[in-house]
Amino acid sequence: MENIVEFKNVSKHFKDFSLENINLQIKQGLVTGFVGANGAGKSTTMKLMMNLLQADEGEIKVFGKSYDNNNEKEIKERIGFVYDSNIFYESLNLKDIRRIIAPAYKNWSDKQFYDYIKLFELPLNKAIKTFSKGMQMKTSLALALSHDAEFIMMDEPTAGLDPVFRRELLDILKDLMADKRRTLFFSTHITSDLEQIADQITFIQRGKILFNESIQDIQERFALVKGKANLLNPSTEKSFISVKRSSNEFQALTNNAEEVRKSFGDQVVLENATLEDIMYYAKGARHQYV
């Protein structure tokens, strides 16, 4: 399967934060969820993908091309960025926006634009300032789809949306991805959304990629482990990424569920770990990589 994005040993340094030696592949036709706490490096990574920032070390390719050698316009023609807030002049309406944006894209289709405006039930003649947050999100998505973007990047698309609209948006995205022609990179704090739609999860923490793998593999590999506190000692604790203790019991996260089953047998209970569980326990991990 072709990689839409490739980072090879990419680093970016700031005064108080660094992305360190990032290796990342985003595969064509899949939904990749991008998770991490505030300040983990999600926005910096996405800006590097868009060439809004340049790496200090390493190599970045999008569609197999680097941004040098006059490739930037060609690459960005094929990318659609869906923002989490309004980026347009509030007094403009959708007809105004179409008139400004359409000439910038050689693959712009008025038919697709008006089809998506109808599908998303967006008013053409009302000012953007009258749009709800959900309508603004639909507007960004309609514009990305109208120039036939192959790689769609979404930054917190469901944040602040009511539960009904969040579900509606996820259904729209599932339909868009059904033919595997597009690739979706989905940054969010709402990990339950990713558990519904994602094929792949990339987890970044403190400027390092902790894992980038299929959601199926994550579900098989990670587990919450519960048992009596007297089972813990320096040797057994090596089976866990992080442990939470009470006086008599413990709860921990493992990234090797099968090994824990073999080692502890029926002395412990294993439960499925959600992405939120993994993020919570990884934050207090004894070792850096999970």
Order of helices and strands: EEEHEHEHHHEHEHEEHEEEHEH
CATH superfamily annotation of the largest domain: P-loop containing nucleotide triphosphate hydrolases
CATH architecture of the largest domain: 3-Layer(aba) Sandwich
What is the helix content? Answer: 25-40%
Stretches where pLDDT falls below 50 for ≥5 residues? none
Secondary structure tally, helices: 10
Mean pLDDT: 88
The helix-and-strand class reads: alpha/beta
End-to-end gap:
25 Å
Please list the strands of the largest sheet in the order they lie side by side. 5-6-7-3-8-9
Q: What is the overall silhouette?
A: globular
Give the biggest beta sheet: 6 strands, mixed
What is the CATH third-level topology name of the largest domain?
Rossmann fold
The total count of strands amounts to: 13
Please identify the top-level CATH class of the largest domain: Alpha Beta
Gyration radius over CA: 22 Å
Strand content: 25-35%
Number of domains: 2
